[in-house]
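subagent[fold] <- orchestrator: predict structure for attached chain, return tokens only, no commentary.
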Amino acid sequence: QVHLVESGGGLVQAGGSLRLSCAASGRTFSNMGWFRQAPGKEREFVAGGSAANTDYGDSVKGRFIISRDNAKNTVYLQMNSLKPEDTAVYFCAGNLRYAFGVSTTSATYDYWGQGTQVTVSS
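subagent[fold] -> orchestrator:
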């Protein structure tokens, strides 16, 4: 079975940092991404990475960094300069269709983690 398990969420003050981890088991993914969803809002693309590319949502560019440890089959999201509007449940996802590009569309991702809450206080 395939599982994606996120960790690292929590409460942080504005301007602070957090690092999220997503450990995958059962298979490896060519393209992995992070999405977030705040109450009453649609799920939003945050960051994604493949073998050759990374991409970021406009609202996090310059603040968030996605990275990957292939030996551990784990993807990370380093979040810096956090803002209250970054508050959301963060999900990692695995995409089986994109080998070198990065998909920013949630519908193209095949497997999802359970999510981890990130709360940024002002």
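orchestrator: received. Logging for downstream: The first strand starts at residue 3 and ends at 7. The mean pLDDT is 95.
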